[in-house]
Amino acid sequence: MSDKLILYNIPSKVDTWSGSVAKVKYLLDANNISYETVWVPFNKIGETLAARGIKPNPEPPLYTLPAITIGDLTISDSSKIVKYFIENQDDLIKKGILKDEFKAYNDLVTPEFFQYFENFIIKSEPLHDLIYKLLLANEVHLLNDEDQQPFIESRLIKGVDIPAIERQAKELNIARIWENATNFLNRDLKESFNYPGLQRDKFLTGKFVYGDELTWADILFFTRFNHLEELAKANVEYSKIPENGLVDSEWIKAWIKRVEDIIN
Ligand SMILES: N[C@@H](CCC(=O)N[C@@H](CS)C(=O)NCC(=O)O)C(=O)O
């Protein structure tokens, strides 16, 4: 089997519907890695990954994207994928999959940091309503029609009732949710970030999130800003969100541009 790289993505009404897939896509794009996209409808994720030898997760969802295939190896889960790239850099350069040093990693940004960072964002109170109410109510409509019911059912298994969230979402104060998220992302984040051992003088002071090189931390941040914003904006019902989106800090605006220049 050839060693070409495949990225499995979920077809939808937007470019990349899943934030988790977007992270890996941005990572590949930031590194100029060539890959083929295989589109796997949401309700076919399980059978596709099982056929590629992926073991089910202990709890639902049993199979998730993103996944990549290189030769006869398939890896699912964004953290595992980035870990694989980090640990197999030399081999991947020899195979021509990576072109040079892997952008997205430095010694200070360990896999533990990635996990911390992700949990920190996902569990942050000021982002809670944006992520768990507004976007959850929106994102179902952005999936292809035939995948919407399977998605609703997959969430119900985990106790998340999307139709109920949708009904509640109609009562939400969208401007308020947006303001909380904007304040957090633009101002409070820097103060409240408290990772043990983090060299705070390097955090949000250089060109990128952590120093002057793009790291996985930039990809995680970028996904949160851009991807969440894209999803929110794509829904007509919530088109009233402020023009400037989630960004009003000059540093963040300039940083988004720097990341976009590398990804595009
Ligand atoms: N920890 C996983 C999470 C991935 C994930 O939750 N993917 C979703 C799409 S955003 C999925 O494939 N869900 C399948 C399902 O819920 O059945 C990662 O980072 O890769």
UniProtKB/TrEMBL annotation:
Pfam families: GST_N_3. Residues 21-90 form the GST N-terminal domain. This is GST N-terminal domain-containing protein.
